[in-house]
From TrEMBL:
Taxonomic lineage of the native organism: Bacteria, Pseudomonadati, Pseudomonadota, Gammaproteobacteria, Pseudomonadales
Superkingdom of source: Bacteria
Pfam families according to UniProt: Fer2
Protein known as: Ferredoxin
Signal peptide positions on this chain: none
Cross-referenced InterPro entries: 2Fe-2S_ferredoxin-like_sf, 2Fe-2S_ferredoxin-type, Beta-grasp_dom_sf
Molecular function per GO: iron-sulfur cluster binding
CDD domains, alphabetized: fer2
2Fe-2S ferredoxin-type domain location: 1-95
Length: 107
């Protein structure tokens, strides 16, 4: 099974993402942290990242958190993107209110 290197500009980390695997799942399996994790299904918007370089395929994401113009700028949810090439990513900081909500939400 082919894999792709994901380089994280925010943390300086890198990890391998298998073909057909979401960036978030690969990040978690590698023990890396970059973004908070919520629903893992593209609905909460917690795991937003920016793709700086590379090609990827998108799964369904909430348009409230990721409108089409955001995808055009490379802003996507790590749980719903799948690399087609090696990627360079940046973590997108969430507002403090989102972190507080995550602390009080039981997953």
């Amino acid at each position: 099974m082919a894999g792709f290197q994901v380089n994280n500009r925010t943390t300086g980390d890198h990890f391998l993402c298998q073909e057909g695997q979401s960036v978030l799942k690969a990040m978690e399996q590698a023990g890396k942290k970059c973004v908070p994790v919520g629903c893992r299904g593209g609905g909460c918007g917690f795991c937003k990242i920016r793709i700086v370089e590379g090609d990827f395929e998108c799964g369904k994401m909430s348009k409230a958190h990721v409108p089409p113009e955001a995808i055009d700028k490379g802003e996507v949810l790590a749980c719903r993107i799948y690399p087609l090439t090696d990627l360079t990513i940046e973590c997108v900081p969430l507002p403090e209110a989102a972190f507080e909500k995550q602390k009080t939400t039981k997953v």
